[in-house]
Design goal:
The structure is a single chain. The protein has 131 residues and is an alpha+beta fold. The chain has a single domain, classed as 2,3-Dihydroxybiphenyl 1,2-Dioxygenase, domain 1, CATH 3.10.180.10. The protein is 17% helix and 44% strand. It has an 8-stranded mixed sheet, covered by helices on one side. Strand 2 and strand 3 form a beta hairpin. The longest helix is centred in the N-terminal third of the chain and has 12 residues.
Length: 131
């Protein structure tokens, strides 16, 4: 049986610094990684085995009702990479972005569920979240 647990939520925010400070103060999430992409600044916050991936939405994309703020995808953490690869083959799971994506401490696969939600499936090296 493939064990899966919630790994992270990936979402846009109006003000990255304000959000980082708020999640730290209210829930004790600590910033473990940050950077700037072509879309703007981002940060990964961690608390225990849960993470929030926050991206600052460009002010030009925000409107009065802030309809552009959204959850981009949710992540599931798996514990058995070989079993996951077997399921991809057995169930003909379509993997996005050219296949498996390698990160410094993990590997991820991106897919779409039947309702259209994007899911990132992550396998962490040594089966533990680290930076």
């Amino acid at each position: 049986m493939l064990k899966a647990s919630l790994d992270h939520i990936n979402m846009s925010v109006k003000d990255l610094n304000q959000s980082v400070e708020w999640y730290n103060k209210i829930f004790d999430f600590k910033k473990v990684e940050e950077g700037v992409s072509s879309d703007g600044p981002w940060a990964i916050l961690k608390s225990e085995n849960s993470m929030l991936c926050l991206y600052q939405e460009a002010s030009s994309k925000l409107n009065q009702n802030e309809a552009n703020l959204r959850i981009y995808h949710f992540g599931l953490k798996i514990s058995d990479k070989d079993l996951w690869n077997k399921k991809i083959i057995d169930y003909k799971v379509k993997i996005l972005y050219g296949g498996e994506v390698r990160y410094p401490h993990s590997v991820s696969w991106y897919l779409i569920d039947p309702s259209g939600y994007e899911i990132e499936v992550s396998y962490w090296d040594q089966d533990e979240i680290c930076f």
